[in-house]
Specification:
With about 525 residues, the chain is of the alpha+beta class. It has 13 helices and 24 strands. α12 runs antiparallel to α13. The protein has a seven-stranded antiparallel beta sheet, with no helix packed on it. It is globular. The protein folds into two domains: about 400 residues, Glycosyltransferase (Alpha/alpha barrel); about 100 residues, Golgi alpha-mannosidase II (Immunoglobulin-like, Sandwich).
Length: about 525
C-alpha cells in the first residue's frame, strides 16, 4: 500500500478548520480493543459505557473510516456471534461496567429485548466498511448474514407488525433501550412481556429502509439483479407505509400506538424525537416532508430557550416515569441536547436548501467544544452530562457518537463529498462553501483501510463570476454546486470543453448540476454564472 493520504479540510475560516482535527482527537480516544476468544477486535466505544455497542460503533464509523485501517474486525465478530434465528447482540465487552459493584472482566454479550434497531445497524456498518475497503469478497461472505438478520426482523413477532407491515417496538424513548411500564416495574425496564405497550417508532423504519436499499446496492454490484429488484420493492413499500403511518403533517410522530397508551402530562402528538433528523439523511421523507421537519426544528429552537435545538425529545416526559429518578426533563434521552442530533440536523439542512442554518449548527458545535470536551448530552442550559446525572456508568468528555455526526455533516454537507459507490469511484460533489462565505478551500478525504482518496481545490472569483475546481483523481462525478443567491450558471467547462449543465433550486438555494466523466487525474472544472 502506498503512503496514506492525509485528510485535509482547509477553508481559511479558523472555526471550520478546527472541526476535523478536534473530532479526530475525540474519536481516537474512543477506541477499544478486545481479545474475544482469540479474535482481535477493534472498534469504537459508547460515550457512556466502556462496551462496544453496535449502534454507536456503526455511526462512529462515518468518521473513523477516514483514518482507521481496521473497519472489519468488529463487524466480523458481531457476525460470528449471530444467533440461529438471525438477531445480533447489542454489544459485547470485557471491561467491568457497573463499578464498583461489578469488578469481573469476563466476556459479556448483551441483547436488550426491547431493541428493534440492531439488525439495520449491522447492515449500515457493512456498507461503510465495504465503501472504505472496496473488498467485494468480504462483502459477498456477509450477504447471507445480512439476509438472515433482515428476514428475522420481517418475520419475528417481537419485531414486525403484520397488520401495518412495519417494524414495531415497545414504548421506548425513540431508539433508546428501556420502555414505559406505567409504574409496573420499579426501575428501568428492558423486557418484553404481556403488558408491553407496542407501537411503531419511525426511526426503526427509516433505518430498515436505508438497509433495504443498501442490500439492493450490494446485490446489483454483485450482479444479482433479481435480488436487487426484490430489495428495492421491499424498500419502496416500507417507505410508503412508514410515511403514511408516522408522518403527522409536520414531523414524524414519536410513538404510533398499537396497544393504546396515555401518559398524564404528555402531549404525545407534539413530541419531536431524535430520529426525525436521521430519517431525512436515510431518505425516508420526501423533500417537502424534510423541509417541514427542518422548519419544526427551527421553530422550536427559536422558542424553547435551549442553547441548541438538538433535542433527544421535545417536549420531555415527566420526571421519573420510566423508572429512574435521574430521568428528569432535559436529562439524557428525556429532552437532553445531543450533538449527535445536531450533526444529523446539519447534514439534512445542507442537503435540503438550508445551508446557512446547517453551518450554524457546525459552528455552534465548534464553540461548544473549544475546551476539547464533547459530551453525549447536555442540559438545555448548556450544562454537560456527568456520571451523577446519567443513568449510564460513565460520561466521558470525548463523545464519538455526536462528534462523528458533526464530521459527517462537515465532509458530506459543507465540503460536499459523497461516495455513491465505493473507493470514491463514483462521487457526488456538492461543495457548499458559498454558504460559509469561503472563496478558497482545499479538501482531501481518504479512506483509512485502502488509501483511496478524493481531493479538490475550490476557488470562487466574485469579480469574474466564476467558480473553479481542480480535481485530483479519475472517476465518475455528479456535480451539484451551490451558486450565489439569485445566480444561474451560464457555462460549465471541463478542461476547456463546454459540457451540458442544468440550473435548479433547492428551496431558495441555486445549484448547477452536471454529469462529468473524469478521465484523467488532473481535471479542471470552470463554472461561469450571472
Amino acid at each position: 500500500m502506498s503512503s496514506m493520504p492525509e485528510m485535509v479540510i482547509r477553508s481559511g475560516d479558523d472555526r471550520v478548520d478546527a472541526l476535523y482535527p478536534r473530532i479526530r482527537w475525540f474519536l481516537q480516544h474512543d477506541t477499544v480493543e478486545y481479545d474475544m476468544f482469540g479474535s482481535q477486535v477493534r472498534g469504537y466505544r459508547s460515550p457512556d459505557a466502556p462496551s462496544l455497542w453496535l449502534r454507536d460503533h456503526s455511526d462512529m464509523m462515518r468518521g473513523a473510516k477516514y483514518w482507521d485501517r481496521d473497519l472489519t474486525s468488529a463487524i466480523d465478530h458481531f457476525a460470528e456471534m449471530q444467533s440461529d434465528r438471525g438477531w445480533f447482540f447489542d454489544y459485547f465487552t470485557m471491561s467491568p461496567e457497573k463499578r464498583p459493584c461489578e469488578r469481573e472482566n469476563w466476556a459479556k454479550y448483551v441483547r436488550v429485548p426491547v431493541e428493534a434497531d440492531v439488525e439495520y445497524r449491522f447492515v449500515k456498518a457493512v456498507f461503510l466498511a465495504w465503501q472504505a475497503t472496496g473488498n467485494d469478497r468480504w462483502l459477498r461472505s456477509l450477504i447471507p448474514v445480512m439476509e438472515k438478520a433482515l428476514s428475522y426482523v420481517m418475520t419475528d413477532p417481537w419485531r414486525w407488525d403484520p397488520k401495518r407491515k412495519l417494524v414495531k417496538r415497545p414504548y421506548t424513548i425513540d431508539t433508546w433501550d428501556f420502555d414505559y411500564t406505567a409504574g409496573r416495574y420499579p426501575w428501568l425496564h428492558f423486557q418484553v412481556n404481556e403488558h408491553t405497550y407496542w407501537g411503531i417508532m419511525h426511526g426503526d423504519n427509516s433505518g430498515y429502509y436505508e438497509a433495504f436499499l443498501a442490500m439492493a446496492r450490494f446485490h446489483r454490484h454483485l450482479r444479482s439483479h433479481r435480488r436487487a429488484r426484490q430489495w428495492e420493492t421491499l424498500a419502496s413499500g416500507l417507505r410508503r407505509r412508514a410515511n403514511a403511518t408516522c408522518f403527522n403533517g409536520r414531523f414524524y410522530t414519536h410513538h404510533v400506538p398499537i396497544v393504546p397508551v396515555e401518559i398524564q402530562g404528555v402531549d404525545q402528538a407534539e413530541q419531536l424525537s431524535l430520529s426525525n433528523s436521521m430519517n431525512i439523511n436515510r431518505g425516508l421523507p420526501t423533500h417537502q416532508m424534510a423541509v417541514s421537519i427542518l422548519k419544526e426544528y427551527q421553530r422550536r429552537g427559536a422558542s424553547s430557550g435551549a442553547f441548541a435545538e438538538w433535542f433527544s425529545i421535545d417536549p420531555a416526559f415527566p420526571a421519573g416515569i420510566f423508572g429512574d429518578e435521574k430521568l428528569v426533563p432535559g436529562a439524557y434521552c428525556n429532552g437532553g441536547i445531543m450533538p449527535l442530533v445536531g450533526g444529523e440536523l446539519a447534514r439534512a439542512a445542507f442537503e435540503h436548501g438550508y445551508e446557512e442554518y446547517a453551518l450554524r449548527q457546525l459552528l455552534k458545535y465548534e464553540e461548544l467544544t473549544r475546551g476539547r470536551e464533547s459530551y453525549l448530552w447536555y442540559f438545555p442550559d448548556g450544562t454537560h452530562a456527568t456520571e451523577e446525572t446519567s443513568t449510564s456508568p460513565e460520561a466521558v468528555p470525548t463523545d464519538g457518537w455526536g462528534s462523528s455526526a458533526m464530521l459527517y455533516a462537515l465532509v458530506e454537507g459543507l465540503a460536499g463529498i459523497v461516495d455513491e459507490h465505493k473507493l470514491f469511484q463514483r462521487v457526488r460533489l456538492a461543495p457548499r462553501w458559498m454558504a460559509a462565505g469561503v472563496n478558497e478551500a482545499e479538501v482531501t478525504v481518504p479512506y483509512g483501510p485502502s488509501g483511496a482518496a478524493f481531493s479538490y481545490r475550490y476557488a470562487h472569483d466574485p469579480a469574474q463570476r466564476t467558480i473553479e475546481l481542480w480535481l485530483g483523481q479519475k472517476g465518475e462525478l455528479g456535480l451539484h454546486l451551490l451558486l450565489p443567491r439569485g445566480a444561474r450558471a451560464t457555462t460549465v467547462k471541463v478542461n476547456g470543453r463546454t459540457i451540458r449543465h442544468v440550473n435548479g433550486n433547492v428551496e431558495e438555494s441555486p445549484y448547477v448540476d452536471a454529469e462529468i466523466p473524469v478521465k484523467q487525474k488532473n481535471t479542471t472544472l470552470l463554472v461561469s454564472y450571472k
